Amino acid sequence: MTILLTSFTTWLPHQKSNSSDDLLNIVEKQNKYNCYYLRQLPVEIETASKQAIAIIKKIQPSAIICCGMAESRFQLTIESHARCQESYLQTTVNLTQLVSQLSHTSISNDAGQFVCEELYYQVLNYLQLNNLALPCIFVHVPVLTTHNQEIILPDFASILEFLAENSGV
């Protein structure tokens, strides 16, 4: 039983790294969880979605956490849904229950209308079309600093534990 974790690479010249990938790098080094890391997806909708869905087919994870960077946010935010044109897909995860256990994480209703939202939509759509009842969330990660890592890392660990407990991992 495995949790799939995804992250993106940078997309703007001023970005030294992508905070979603920075977070997964730390989690991977801790080696506390049974995770598969699909790191540094390209910031390109079609390619990122195809790579993620191919890995889902290959490893058949028990849960999925897609991560992306949100430079303007100051805490972890878990996206409630993804939209593509007029279509909305909701996560099946009880976000209210999940966030109630976290000190530095909130629920967001705006995944950003960029590659993050499109990846989330495509993964949720794939799961729905294939009748796969896997917990899947998208977590936006603020720019990591030495100060906020002390708060963000425990929250992300709690997110991993919550999904593991609620997926049979």
Automatic annotation (TrEMBL):
InterPro entries: Peptidase_C15-like, Peptidase_C15-like_sf. Pfam families: Peptidase_C15 (PF01470). Keywords: Hydrolase, Protease, Thiol protease. One of its GO terms (biological process) is proteolysis. This is Peptidase C15 pyroglutamyl peptidase I. GO terms for molecular function: cysteine-type peptidase activity. Belongs to the peptidase C15 family.
